[in-house]
Amino acid sequence: MTSRETILSKLHAARQPFAGLPPAGDMIPVVPADDTSPAALRVRFVAAAEALNCTVTACPDADAAIRHILGLVGTDSTILSWDLKHVPLPGLGAALAAAGIAIAAAGDAHVRAGLTGVDAALAATGSLLLASGPGKPRGASLLPEVHIAVVAAGQIVPDLETWLAAQRAAGLEHLRRLNSVVMISGPSRTADIAMETVMGVHGPGAVQIVLVGES
Question: How far is Cα 117 from Cα 94, in angstroms, rounded to an integer?
C-alpha cells in the first residue's frame, strides 16, 4: 500500500462528522430562474458574462468560430491549448496548422493566448466551469494574457446546482476522475493595494468567449 493509499484509508475509516443530521430537503437555487428554456439560458448567460467583463462572440457554426479564433490569435505563432479533441470545433487543428500556429508546451508562461473548451457554462452567473485532467491542462486558462473559451450552445446550464445534480445522477464517477474543477467568472482581478481594482495580475486580463451554435 502506498503512502497515499494509507492516508486515504485512515480518512475513510475515521468517524464521519454530522452523521446524525437528517437528509437535506429540496435545494433552493442561489439565483432562481423562471425560464430555463435553451433560448432564455443563452440570453441570460451572455448578459451575465458580459457583466463580468467577458467578451462574448456568437458564431453560427464551427467555421465561423474558427475564423474568429484565428483573428484573436492574430500574428502569434504559438498558443497554449487543451487537446483539441476537448474543444468542440471540427477542423480547428487543420486551420491552426495552415495558419502556422503551433501549440506550445504545457506551462509555457510566455504565450499570449490560451484556448480551451468548457465543461459547462452557468447562465445564473456567467461563469465558465472547467475541469482539468488528461489533455485539459489548467495552464491554458490560467497563464496567458488572453483566455479564449469555446462554449457550445448546448453546454449552457441554469446554474452550478444543476451541473452538480447531473454529476450526482451519473454516480459522481466522472467528477472523481478529475484533477480539479474551477469556475472562471471574468478576467483575473485584484484590489489588494489601496482598494484599486487591477485586471490581469493573477491570470488572464481578458476572457474571450466564443459561443458556437444556436439555442
Answer: 17
DSSP 112: S
Amino acid at position 142, single letter: L
Instruction: Specify the pLDDT at position 18.
Output: 75
Contact indicator for 66, 91 with CB cutoff of 8 Å: yes
Query: Count of CB atoms within 10 A of residue 81's CB?
Result: 29
State the pTM of this model: 0.83
Cell of 12: 475513510
Domain 35-187+204-212 in CATH 3.40.50.10420: yes
If we measure between CA atoms, which residue out of 1, 212, 200 comes closest to residue 91? 212
Q: Where are the domains of the chain?
A: 35-187+204-212
Query: What residue type is assigned to position 45 of the chain?
Result: F
Q: What pLDDT, in 10s, does the model give residues 129-139?
A: 999 988 999 99
Q: What are the Cα distances from residue 130, in Å, to 80, 86, 133, 142, 187? A: 15, 11, 10, 11, 14
- Within 8 A by CB and 6+ apart from 153, the residues are 38, 42, 211, 212, 213, 214, 215
Q: Using only the alpha carbons of the chain, give its radius of gyration.
A: 19
Dist. CA 75–CA 100, nearest whole Å = 9
Q: What is the DSSP string of 115-143?
A: EE--SEEETTTTEEEEEEBTTB-THHHHS
CA–CA distance, 95 with 63 (Å, rounded to integer)? 10
**What is the number of other CB atoms lying within 10 angstroms of the CB of residue 183?**
13
